[in-house]
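Here we describe the complex-level prediction in full. Unlike the single-chain runs in Section 2.1, the two entities below were treated as one system.
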Amino acid sequence: MKSKHKLKLVHLYPDLMNLYGDRGNVLCLQQRARWRGIDIEVVPVGVGMKLPEDYDLLFMGGGQDRGQELVADDLFQKGHQIKASIEAGLPALVICGGYQLFGHYFKTSAGKKLPGIGVFNAATDASNRRLIGNVVVRSQRFGKLVGFENHSGLTKLAASLEPLGQVVQGGGNNGEDGVEGALYKNAIGTYLHGSFLPKNPAVADFLISAALARAGYEAVLTELDDSLEKKASELASKRPQ
Amino acid sequence: MLQIIAILSAKIIFKLNRLTGTGGAALPGLIAKKIDDQILLHLCWNNFPDGIIVVTGTNGKTTTTKLIADILEVSDISYLHNKTGSNLERGIVSEMLRRANWRGRIDAQVALLEVDEASIPAVLSQLNARTILVTNLFRDQLDRYGELQTTAQMIKKGLASQQGATILLNADDPLVASLADNDGNTYMFFGISDFNGPVLKHDYTADSVHSPISNAPLVYSKKYFSHMGVYKSKNGDFVRPKPDWELIKMKNFDTEGSRFMLQSETAQSQEIDLSLPGIYNIYNAIAAIAVAETQGIDEKSTTKVLKNSTAAFGRYEKIRYRDRDVVIVLIKNPTGFNQAIQTYLQDKKQTLVLAINDNFADGRDVSWLWDAAIEDIRSGRIIVGGLRRYDMALRLKYAGKTGQVVDELTACLDRAIDVTKEGEPVYILPTYTAMLEIRRFLVKETEMEDYWK
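The structure predicted for the assembly as a whole is:
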């Protein structure tokens, strides 16, 4: 058991995949760790930069189509390494555009097929409708989840892949099969912005705790006062779609 | 004939609106457009002998348009201005119909139109502007507009439909500067080359940071906020254009306003006194100067207006309420929020009210609160209200700050006054519909001007 609690979080493409306040997720992980005496160092990794040898958490947000095209090739080159880490239990959170590129491919509205890195056994095709609005999801593992979706890419999961949860309100992965997001080992993909983690602290704590366990620390987290988080989630889930 | 029916119908609705006391500013235009689809074209055809001025972009439209209106006013140029806030096609049509006689004649030399970015293609396809101003392009209510690139494409399409217009672009915004084209219009630029005021530590709102030609990253020699500054791409294929109106020396910059030297092509360098605070208002002022010069207006009128200017509706409105100075600064997107933080929220003595709604006009998505530089707020006391008050309180919590949540929006004001000593200011930063609600309350309680009148 190590004594000093230090974790390293890789933030993929913060300059290009940074829309919709997704950086709030990184802030949330950092603060919830800090409040428990755990230090999270954030390492931004951009196009053409190397992943660090060893790290404990991975995050990638959503971006504009242009941003997504600019990072797709670079991500593909890092794909092998990332996939291996996730197979070995690396906790990761990828949102919207990041989620799409963690599947097998994303076919844009212009018909261009951006190759994904296949962490999730899923694929995304652009559509001519946009799923926009407040979303409420019922997750077996995390309970009620809330967020805001805004995507025209429709994602289909393979039957073997577990979704993050069942859609109670909103579109979710594709607006048809009633599921949202994906969960594979310790990696989570979702369309939910909001930011996602601050109003869904159970997911944040799951990621931190998985990172601690993998790094050889005690993985049991002390309880925090989440009354504000609960109220924000409660209010958000009552807003119209 | 269709046009006359459309005009008469709109006139009847205006009458009814006045009788019932409702202020649905855009409804007459909506109805008229249903009857005559090209009503805007028909109205613009034979009116406005001194040209049409169009102002668009994400932030600063309303303030810049107001400055231009004030300049036209002191220059004795009669004008039409869609100032009641509806900057969609139907709002513009409404204002024209309100001013038109039954045959469609409008008694105004100039039309000054503030136009929503998404309405630009529809509006510009029906008129030929003399001057078009694009202020800036920032991330804004993405649930409504989609992506920044899409907005830029829409504006580009609108500009291409113009013949012989003078198009004024912000040189310091890479995406706006990249709109310049070889399409028979005259493209000119304005920009700031000297700035010594404070900048934010936690500014994460820059979106256009790659060359539109090669996608090479942009390198900034100066950066003021978001992606605004002096830049060139790493491979040199995209360089900030040399501004035709250039702030070359900042002489003074404080919370009351600024004084600076402006070099323009036509005039000698001139000293400008601006009575509006913040670097974002300097952009608004320089843009207004550029428009005025393009319209051939004497520079004395312009400098006079800028020296005594007041901001537009809800954009920096000062009011006395219960013996305190209350200032309203509308926030609509992270860049606007950041500019308010950078300009106003750096004093411990002040009380801050953050009023966040998520109605359609505000944008349903509140994710943008996480992009704003909340960490840079220095206000001593923070009170939080609005439909998404807990989202705001949560954002503050994760920035290591505490916001006092008040359930009733207008009760926030009284709470703020209760905790503020005499002589200390209260700043209210509301989203659009929260601003309307707070203003309605203050109009009732104070001497504040009701803008519907």
